[in-house]
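Structure ticket #2291
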Amino acid sequence: MKTKILFIIMISLVLNLYGCDKKNSLKAEEISKVKIIFSEKSSEGKHCIELSQNENIKKMLNTYKKLKTKENFYDKTGCKIKVQYVMKSGKLINDSYKLENVDGIFKDIFNTLEVKKQTIDIFKINPSNIKKVKFESPLDRKVWESNDIKVIKKAYENTLIHFKNRNYYGKRDFFKLAYVDFFNNEGQIIAGGLVLRKDNQWDQMFRDYPEFNELLISPKEVKNVKLTTRKRNKKITVTDDEIIEKIINTYKIGSTNKSEVSVEIVLKNDFRTHLYGSYNKGEIPNFISDLLNYENNF
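Resolution: structure written out below.
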């Protein structure tokens, strides 16, 4: 009985090794498409995707090689993933995993335009179905809604540009200016996006629509800005409008373990909460370094 069990285990190991070797030897030119199915634990909008472009199939094969070195290759609590390689010969090669940090591992694939068109709503909707657009600044402070056809058209085009140009997965949106929601005739949200301070495609709207400018935080609305160095715990309070404007235009929303200077923007007429952000080490503007009297890369 023990001999039989050992024999079965050995056969299973051989088959697994053969399967790995077979996938290692796959060439993108031999593959018609790759189907990737994620369990419900995966990120929203990426339940099932297909890769048919040669360059993206190559990225999937490279991702497979990376997966072999990951400790969470077969994580029992992770997201279930099924991968099917559809060969040009008609053969099917199947694979499966359980992984944590799906966005991090598959970010090179998720960031391809082919996958974005399958997973991000703005690519899937018919722009003629958009009847209203709403811009909402962080913390629900300011809202601008419009059913003007020109505003809707420009917002739609700018949001497409945003998602096409940005490597969205694996990064955080530190320069968030406003959320964008698109509504259909029934008042349902059919797509969404973001306005980032670094997105130049929105410049024309800032020039053409005073209401759009209202989404910005003006130095006149700010009581003061408190800057704190994390290592030295040095604190200063800024009240000069010109410096406050520079901070508003350069600070990052939120913080990470790389943050060196904390930013707290105290508003005059908003007692619910303040705006918090930071500057990372090595990315601190000279005017901030001068204010705090220390070197940028301290």
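Closing remark: The chain has eleven helices and 13 strands.
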